[in-house]
Amino acid sequence: MIESFRDLIVWNRGIELSVLIYEITKSFPKDEIFGLTSQLRRASVSIPSNIAEGYGRGSSGAYVNFLKTSRGSLYELETQLTIAKKLKYIDNELYTKLNRCTRELEKMLNSLINKLTNNA
Questions:
Q1: All residues at 6 or more sequence positions from 94 whose CB lies less than 8 Å from its CB, including other chains
Q2: CA–CA separation, 1 vs 19, rounded Å?
């Protein structure tokens, strides 16, 4: 039974992805600290943060809007990861792993959005 946002698998996966992004970006060039490193970190943190905030709003309409914002942050993160790969900050293997994570999160967010939208 879901008693809070902490019980949501999608929120937990978002947290895991954010922690992974922080670990990965530690190895980025120091001159990226205010550029791509910062952007990746902010986008990744925004994903579970918006899931939690939307859950706390108490209405399904508001929740859906925050879930859509979370999905937008996920797409932003995917774009930034593609740039990081092209700059050779991450290798193909890591990029593939991260891509699997983001695709899974996208499916989960879409499913939750659809469920809430259809039940409204």
A1: 24
A2: 26
Q: What angle do CA 80, 82, 88 make, to 5 degrees?
A: 105
Q: Taking every pair of C-alpha atoms in the chain, what is the biggest distance, in angstroms?
A: 48
Cα separation values, 25 from 41, 80, 100, Å: 8, 12, 18
Look up tokens 């600290």; give the residue.
33
Report pLDDT digits (tens) over 8-38.
999 999 999 999 999 999 999 999 999 999 9
How is domain 5-118 classified at the architecture level of CATH? Answer: Up-down Bundle (1.20)
Tokens of 103: 């695709």
The pTM for the full model equals 0.94
